[in-house]
Amino acid sequence: MNRYLPLAITALAILAMATLFLVIAPGMQIGAQGPSPGLNPYTEAEARGRDVYVSMGCLYCHSQQPRSIAQAPDAERGWGRASVAGDYAYDNPHQLGTMRTGPDLMDIGDRLPSQGWQLTHLYQPRAISSWSIMPAYPYLFEHKDKADPGDVVVKLPPAYAPKTGVIVAKQDALDLVTYLQGMKRQYAPPADGLRDDGYALIAAEQQKQTDAAKASN
Amino acid sequence: MQITETLGLLLALSFIISLLALTILIWAIANKQVHTPDADDARSIFTPGEGAEIDTPDKPHHFDTERSGIDQVSASPVMWLIAAAVFWLIYGSLHGLAASLELHLPDLMSGAAQMTFGRMRTVHLNSVAYGWASQAGLAAVFWIIPRIFHTKLRMVGMVKLGIVLWNIGVAAGVMAIANGWTDGLEWLEIPWQIDIVLALGAACFVAPLISTTKHREVHHIYVSGWYFLAAVLWFPVLFIIANIPGVHHGVEQATMNWWYAHNVLGLWLTPLGVGTAYYFIPKIIGKPIYSYAVSLVGFWALALFYSQVGIHHLIGGPVPTWLVTLSVVHSVMMFVPVIAVAINQHVTVARNLWALKESMPLRFIWFGALSYTAASFQGSIEALRSVNTITHFTHYTVGHAHLGAYAFVSLVLMGAIYQIVPRATGKYFPFPRLIAWHFWLNVIGFAVYFLSLTIGGVLQGLAQLDATKPFADSVILLKPYLEGRSLGGGLMTLGHVLLAINLIALGFAKKTRETETDNMVAAE
Amino acid sequence: MMSDKMKKDPRLPDETFEPFEETRRIPLPVYWIAIALAIWGVFMLVETSHSTQVADKARAQLDKQEQTKTAQVSAPDPAAGKALFSDNCATCHGDAGEGVAGAFPPLHGSDVVKLGGAQAVTEIVMRGIGGPLNVNGESYDGEMPAFGSVLSDKEISEIASYVATGLNDGTKTISASEVADIRKVSGDMDPWNGGAELAGLINGLPAQPDAKTPAAKGPDAKLVAQLVNEGTDTVWSCASCHGEKGEGLETVPRLAGLPAAYLVKQLHDFQKGARFNDSMAYVAKGLSDREIIDLANYYAGMSSPSGATPSLQGDLKRGAQLAKEGDWSIGVPACFTCHGPSGIGVAPEFPGIAAQQPSYVAHQLAMWAGGARHNSPLGLMAGISKALSDADRRSVADYLASLPPVPGSKPADMVAMTTSASAAKESSNDQ
Known about the structure:
- The structure holds three protein chains of three kinds.
- Chain A is mostly helical.
- Chain A has six helices and two strands.
- Chain B is globular and about 70 Å long.
- Chain B starts with a helix and ends in a 16-residue tail after the last helix.
- Chain C has 19 helices and three strands.
- Chain C folds into three domains: 121 residues, Orthogonal Bundle (Cytochrome Bc1 Complex, Chain D, domain 2), CATH 1.10.760; 100 residues, Orthogonal Bundle (Cytochrome Bc1 Complex, Chain D, domain 2), CATH 1.10.760; 86 residues, Cytochrome Bc1 Complex, Chain D, domain 2.
- Chains in contact: A-B, A-C, B-C.
């Protein structure tokens, strides 16, 4: 090759094609569907809590995309039904995540709805699970001599409680918990909900094999 | 149903376009429809203005960049870039090491929000991706482009302005992230307001390169030039589309996110690494690249296939099936360009293994080139649905990412730095043994790192797929592997410190290098 | 210094060498690989389109199930009513509604049905009933669960119409929309408090025994309410996870109506580490023996509607087979053999499993299969769970979720301080 312009034009045209197929076409398809029926926009407190979630980088250990039963036992772990594109209509930035160093959080509001549990766990995860490697977030809390009216006191076991006074949640912690409590995807997914169905065939074939094995017994 | 069929068609169409384009390219090469750099072309590289000693008919493929004054012009922006890149390498490595330690010592640094894992890890990624790899790659680009075009770098002032803007952008970006101001998308965390500074910096890099290309004194563009010139166009387009605020949301934002994030690797860092290796491997050995036709296939197949692989990061997720399959199929097609590059680079080195003993930079670069082959093969296989279901959400992916971005791109660029700096400064590295130490620390450290995460990741993925194992099992079994990762990461970081020491020591050394000396930086 | 050591290899190029590429053909294997990959790619596309078809079909099926369940048909189908009756009612009331003297009142030729008609049957099916009740002059004192949360309007209309017109000589059926109207009023109400309350609904009902007044709330009632709703300084409230009605959700189990002795044993097992769940171990360690007993009694006596719906795409037919008959080809006995008819539980050891959360059941079965849970009597559950496939676990969990909830137990089944202490001792001996 010895001419720059054709090289540049072809290179950019290929990128344009990739953009069309990976961003624009799916964007139009997903946009046409809109939010799943049953999904509510975030309340103000939830939106504030979501900002805390984003800024702390929770995304880097927690996904928000339960897999289908055909692929993985996510539903059996209580992580909720497989999500579809419409379930994320109000998300910006999206927090689908790519890691499960910790469990999926798409349905955490159903599985662990307790504000008290969440606050204890955010203050010190190892107060509940000795094996946990989640960071503690003590800076979302305040150490006070006495709780003021309206303060939410964190319930702590003696080993992690302060010697005197109490630990109360700051607004950021309360908002974050409100966001987590609102993470509920119990409504039925729309029949035409978009998701990766690429594992359905594999699972169906496996089922057929186990059925056949059973029949031959 | 109707819609699914239409989209299935669209998917098939995209794949067929890619295949057709590849077929036409190969047909054209086979039938010599593509102009090959034959003997005439080769001669036309040497302009009559050059001295007879530099460019004699009985010595084709020779050109003295030093005496023609080309290197002297590029030297100062290249050294600026290298200095900044190494700073961000150390800064980023320390954050990476800290993040790694936090994963198995979670209460080590929980005193301040700035030090929480979610932010440390993000500062690490942005420092090494935008601060280190991008700038070290640009240093190689600004060094190599004028050399292969036989003309000096144009608009040097603008390049330097770009370097200043870029570093302000990266510094502001990582400070924003550490303090909780983030756009919240992987690889796109730097707030878009700061991204404007980075985009301006990028523009200051692109214009001088295009200008230099226009003024080139050779007819044929050497293969490194294709990769570099395409990459410097691809990156700004990617960066700007991905960072426009208010356009993307929901799952569409997720597909855009991974279109961007994978293309930053595929269409930015990879071309920088491959192009650098394509230049320095034959340059150091003194033997040509195996085949021009193969390098054409390698380049265009990379552009066609790599650009559409991003959605394999969302396999099994809430995105349309056809989109995922599109990326899976293209990921596997990546075997084609990778095999092409492997033939060209490895055959050249394998026929001249003696050079590895002589040249430390070549050792770095060839290790990097091998890692490129390994990382790409691994990536293609990892994208298969059956494999991906195990590895997807695990630390295996992190190991793979480091095989690509570290063992490939970073090692190639470290080799390039060791090769470029003595020529740009006219000085030797005073402690060549330390270069070998650096090499082995990085290689051994990386091997520990990679094996830990690969084995740990597979076990983690299998545990999570097994309904009869509680989730806790997947965390508990991973801990020793996370410790292994910290050990490997520590050795790698130590290697980077040696790189900085080598550069600083060279800065204090007296000028010793003579102009017509050998090609080698150091020999043991 | 260094330059002395530098040896110049004669083969090294000089600095002026310029990289270039030779003109060689593309090696043949590259073509082969490219062609093979392209063929594989096309195969993948075809396979994906098959996969989406499989998934579409599965979704369409689920949709259809959902629609038939919610469809509002005005005329109830007597055949469907009979089938639903034998699925849901015959376990206790008998195939022909003949009842069991002294335990389950008859529905065939029953004065309550005759006088109240399909309307009254609907009310009772919807809310359930417990306490003293006279039917055809015979007295009963049992508990019938509320079916309102597990049966659709259409299904209730078909059952009620069948009981009124098929088992008795009534002529008036009830439509799904009329059932819907009743649901609006009484859907959330507590079970009927014996015949005394029923007398207010059915005109001319023969004399009924007095309703039992709820046990006088002792001094502990306040403390229990405090624990349930607010927790203590160190322990979260029960209701914050298990729900105000103890109905649970996802992997949080339903507690309402479980045997008190079972609940006490589980809490002690959490304390001792014999059963693993970090959150529950934390809670149990923060509770005194007294508190554990009070809470167990509180939840054992609780009647609340089902909060569970099948959600794991299990095969309900297979689930029903496993629950009612077991599958001897894999050595699995019927769940109901131990857990009681319709899974209502057998105190003290076998908890009710009807209306339990499906994720919880499937997860616990999986934990038994994998050995992470191992605190069942004689290790029974481990053997059973290991024999079940992944799909079987989901099927049985989904089927149990479709059943009516377990009614709260009678005071006789409650645990007193002393017995629990010995129970705790026993279970520690087991370990």
